[in-house]
Amino acid sequence: MQIHGFVSQAYISTSDNNVFGNSDNGGSFGLTEAGLNASVRPLPRLQLSAQVLSRRAGEGNSGMPRLDYAVLDYRLYSQETNQLGIRVGRIKNPFGFYNETRDVAFTRPSILLPQSIYFDRTRNLGLSSDSVQVYSDLAVSNWGTLSTQFGVSLPIVNDKDTESSLLGGVRPGNLEREVGYIGRGIFETNDKRLRLGVSGIWLNTSYDPNNLLRDPLGPGALQFTPIIFSAQYNAERWTLTSEYAIRSFKYGNNFRNPGLNGLDFVGESYYFQGEYRFTPKIEGILRYDALFIDRSDRDGSQWAAQNPLRQGLEHSRFARDITVGIRWNVTPEFMLRAEFHHVNGTGWLSRLDNPVAKDTEENWNLYAIQASYRF
Questions:
Q1: Across 211-215, 250-254, 258-262, 298-302, least confident range
Q2: pLDDT confidence of 213, banded at 50, 70, 90?
Q3: Cβ count near 250 (within 10 Å)
Q4: Closest by alpha carbon to 228, among 295, 183, 273?
Q5: Distance (Å, rounded) from C-alpha 77 to C-alpha 62?
Q6: CA-based radius of gyration for the chain
Q7: Residue 282 and residue 328 in contact, taking contact as beta carbons nearer than 8 Å
Q8: For site-directed labelling of 24, which of 139, 143, 193, 288 has its Cα 20 to 30 A away?
Q9: pLDDT score, position 53
């Protein structure tokens, strides 16, 4: 039996707009993360693991403890370099380089992950799902290892942030879970210098208005199918990482809201990131991160032209973020971080923390510090 845990507290201040609470008014201690996990191996090929997480992050996450993951992992076949297994339960979604470990601050490259790929406003949806997954590790000649995962899943869609992001606001009805699919393949050279990956998600959900007469949105279905390409190069003192995503959104034809009914568009996002290790305890990070809600309308002008109420909100359709940060590993258990973001656009802001869209500003800065402890 192994038991581990972590706790992190961040202070965030913004020049405009709110991130994880009222950060635009004197700063906010609104980002608090605490988790406790356990794992046990009752049989050589069987492992059971679970984690309970408390996350306070603005209006969308109150800090109420929730089951982050609970997994039964059985290895069907295992050798020194090759293995095949199956996982069942609430499982971390395998996409990109950071999603499966994003809940622990020590495993993230920065306080805020690149929001173009790893949205915090839909974190619960992206982090894990109730699924069955098959995984394998296969040695590829003398070049390296190919790791693959594929699963059939039911997404977690029962939170206000997800509903607000997908449906344009908090609705009186509920998002319903539909069967979807997820898969990822990562190739890693034997010396761990080069990592290449591709991830794909086929997410399905539908909206149940509960009361057709009182809900102007009406019933409807949504399909979200992002594909993510990942690359990383590791040297002794520095690491270069980049990920690129194409995200397809398709809304059904049953929605009563003309803004959603039959909507079909493709989003695009990417980032370039460099990390440099000045000493074994101190490292810095520099990143450029870009998000476009609709790749055919990068500046949001076409979207705004469709409705007079959208005038002046073009910046809600994109976000470009330049990040500079530093990390100090004080001890193996205790870490301090600080970072600065200059952001053009509001495409990844939480609508719950910024309920009045007209009050948001296109160009803004974010300052953050964080202390983290693990055991």
A1: 211-215
A2: low
A3: 15
A4: 183
A5: 42
A6: 21
A7: yes
A8: 288
A9: 93
